[in-house]
Write a structure and sequence with these properties.
634 residues, alpha+beta, 8-stranded mixed β-sheet, 22 helices
Amino acid sequence: MSTLENIRQERIAKLQRLRDNGMDPYPARTERTHTITDFLEAYGELEKAQTSVTIAGRIMSIRDQGGVLFADLMDGTGKAQLVIQADTLGEEKLELFRSLVDGGDIIEAAGTAYTTKRGMQSLSVSGWRMLAKSLQPVPDQWYGIKDEDERYRKRYLDILLSPEIADRIRRRSLFWNTIRSYLLEQDFVEVETPALETTTGGADARPFVTHHHALDIDVYLRISAGELWQKRLMVAGLPKVFEIGRIFRNEGMSFEHLQDYTQLEYYQAFSDYEKGMEMITDLYRTIADKVYGTRIFTIKDFTVDLGKDWVIYDYCTLIQKEFGIDPLKKDTAEVAKALTSRAIPFDEEGFSIERGVDLLWKQLRKTLTGPGFLVRVPAYLEPLAKRSADDERVVERFQVLIAGSEMGKGFSELNDPVDQAGRFQHQQALRDGGDEEAQMNDASYVEALEYGMPPAFGFGLSERFFSFLEGVSAREAQIFPLMRPKTEDAKEPKTKERQVAVAVVRKEGLEPWQVLNTVAHLAAELGIREGRTLLTQDALTTADDERIPLNMRHAIILKETGDVAELRNLLRGAQANGLQAGAFTREMIETTNDRKIIETTAKMTFDEVDLLGVLVFGPASAVEPMTESFNRYA
């Protein structure tokens, strides 16, 4: 029997001993009179009057000093010290506490305010009661849970042991409620739109598909927060509507991307994207002020000041300046050539001008600090925005750019049903040609537009913005991120989706032999973990019957970075998403003594480890988005 199971069995035995002593280990009610924060705030008056109070919470630690016990009690509002001694509690109840109460138990303690000789504000306990006996030991408060996967699987313990994560949850709530209050104060109506749809719309994304048994039809989980439904409401005469809700996209995971997350979308009739820019600038500053009390943030390698004048970025000008092509000419061959010249990978099968130009833009975007608005986007990239009156080749759309990423999108909504029908048909043709992210042809929405929708501005903002302000990954910013079940079967992919291996290595500061050494070790780690499943066959045979041993099923794509922080984020993201991940550190290149490597690494925090390379292996849909921001090694 394991040590943990021994502890569990001992605590189960204590349940009966509690009952034998007339104490229900799981009562329905508590007699608490004060939260711990209330107790500490009123401490002076309570101590002076020696008023009896009752607090309740979880025992985080117990220190037994013979005649007296000290315990730290935490209730989610604060932490207080309990002083438990025979003089005030009685010898019998003291021994009962000592023998039956463990760290992690939730108890109720009655007593009076008492300041120890060391000046610690405490509660001198005159009575106690068990509220919930803990059968599993809570990890040490100072050590916590170090394994990334385990932290996410047992997020409740991670939150319990990490006050900063609990504070992040509170800020997350304040973040969304600040947005909600901002819109409600401007007479917007909060609405709820369908999460299950027969036709997805409002974004370029691959949807999740499920079956509706009662109607016997396949349906999609929505990929936007009701964009086409909210615009139907403007047809219905509601001029200001918004929704904050969950959306679902069956795509890859990365530092910035998840499959299910919270998003805001709002729509305002008789407005346009230029008026929207003013409102969005004010909204983002309001969020910064109310949630963080500052407008200046360090995000990745960028220092972003939301309080300064926002930059206007011209999409076509940026593309032409960086890559020497005009995206408005729609020259597919020229775009493919630009991608190849920059070693930006793309899928030649089903290649389109839309996907090609978007890949160029994503490469360029990561260099822009912001805050700013990206404008003059080609109409073929945005099927739901109104064309510019000055140039029909571009649309009245903006994207919020902050720290090299997109942090929101808004546009003057397309309300011309004929134009909308044509753009939907073009998107459907792309979809039929194999582009799973192209939008579907929603004829019922076009029909609604034929009844007349007023000019309008629409905007969407996801929780990615919150994660950026927090300085953490999108997964870390969620309360309970999705995890692959912890079973043996879950180790193998359940589909035949293409698998890829991408190795990202540091280029600057390494000699060529060190780069080769890093890549060789990363490849060896992959081979050791995956074994013969990596092979297509044991050997290749030449025309003259010579054998070339071992042909790998998957190529290892080599990319580069100059930033060790990017490698750390990549490793964290791969591990958090359940992908096969290997790493190579400077200690590994400086010595072959495994014990020395282990001892040296154990003395460092993760952020102190000098990573030289990281390899990620798994389904292409997960690995490629996670590594797309890195350049091919040259």
